[in-house]
Amino acid sequence: xxINEIAFTCYPVTDMKRSRAFYxxxxxxxxxxxxxxxxxxxxEFDIGSGTLAIGRAPxxxxxxxxxxxxxxxxxxxxxxxxxxxxxxxxxxxPIETPVCFMAFVRDPDGNSVGIHKRKPGHS
Length: 123
Prior knowledge:
Order of helices and strands: EHEEEEHEEE
CATH superfamily: 2,3-Dihydroxybiphenyl 1,2-Dioxygenase, domain 1
Structural class: alpha+beta
Strand order of the largest sheet: 2-3-4-1-5-8-7-6
Radius of gyration: 14 Å
CATH topology: 2,3-Dihydroxybiphenyl 1,2-Dioxygenase, domain 1
Helix content: 10-25%
């Protein structure tokens, strides 16, 4: 698997309306994607060449101990196959949103790591 870049940084939230009020109203960010799928709700804000996301999904719990990282891959299906072959359990997904494919696994300490592939035309 070849990792190209960090696709996004995501912070889990418990109340999307309250969180959007902070990120949009307080920080002045503009929503670039809002998607609800399979029990999850993701809102993204493009900032320069990066993306900050806030989301609600099974197993995502806000914590003062940190957020989540999404790693952009060349071939999403191959990356998922490699992870499964290595015995890594997929924690959430794979799912498809309007702009990408993604799945989350956990590192040995339980931290969430996203495997991510943007769809053509989305950078």
